[in-house]
Amino acid sequence: MIIKAFLFDLDGVLTDTSELHFLAWKRLAEEEGILFTREDNEALRGVSRRESLNLLLKGRQVSEEQAYEMMERKNGYYVELVRQMTPANLLPGAREMIEEIRHLGLKQAIVSSSKNAWLVLERLQIGELFDAVIDGNARARSKPHPDLFILAAQAVGVPLQNCLVVEDAQAGVEAAHAAGMKALGLGPRERVGAAELVFPSLESHTAREVLAFFEKL
Ligand code: B16
Ligand code: MG
């Protein structure tokens, strides 16, 4: 397979916002008298805001109005934390990888389920390195549906089969495969083992190495 575009997930791949999502959901859970642990938070990785709330509520029934208010409240707490982010919050190896891809003249896009993706990119000061940003504001079904990745391929003008997805979530790897794309998974095999190639993180890995691996597939 010839890679012509890298489609990067944001949270958990280029920066670790999952801790900030956790703190914000936990604050909401405490206010609502719901137990919410770090372990519970793992299931929320890569999942949409609405689906995250459903998981947090653990079957507790709320009206549409209450659900909306809770999501707004949690997002307020989350945005407060994101505003404190700086370029130092890029994960090790992330800047090197995206600069290398840019240098190689390949396309790259951000594909995130988050409605806050632009704010995070601004804080990290990397927005200008990407050819497209497809985020949770796109009118599309979220991961594990393939929609966001298909939109990104169209935005960068690269056929689906020439796009490589970089993901830290099982739902994201599933979405990549559903789009007919291959994936580089970051993190433990229990989570991203379905990806064709798995690294613990981007640290000490190069884009050239990734291109060489996928060329043989
Ligand atoms: P928001 P990704 C995802 O981003 C996060 O991993 C997930 O935990 C979060 O619930 C989702 O975005 C929605 O985020 O509430 O900011 O719209 O991993 O797809 O970059
Ligand atoms: Mg992610």
Keywords:
alpha/beta, Rossmann fold, 10 helices, 6 strands, 45% helix, binds 1,6-di-O-phosphono-beta-D-glucopyranose, binds magnesium ion
Task: Give the class from helix and strand content and strand pairing.
Answer: alpha/beta
- CATH topological fold name of the largest domain: Rossmann fold
Distance between the termini: 6 Å
What would the average pLDDT be, to the nearest integer?
A: 96
Q: Tell me the domain tally.
A: 2
Backbone shape: globular
Examine the secondary-structure arrangement and name the CATH architecture of the largest domain. 3-Layer(aba) Sandwich
What is the succession of H and E elements?
EHHHHHEHEHEHEHEH
Low-confidence regions: none
What's the CATH class label of the largest domain? Answer: Alpha Beta
Total number of beta strands:
6
Can you say what the CATH homologous superfamily of the largest domain is? HAD superfamily/HAD-like
Summarize the biggest pleated sheet.
6 strands, parallel
Backbone CA Rg: 17 Å
Classify the helix fraction into a percent range: 40-55%
Structure annotation, total helices: 10
Bound molecules: 1,6-di-O-phosphono-beta-D-glucopyranose, magnesium ion
Strand order of the largest sheet: 3-2-1-4-5-6
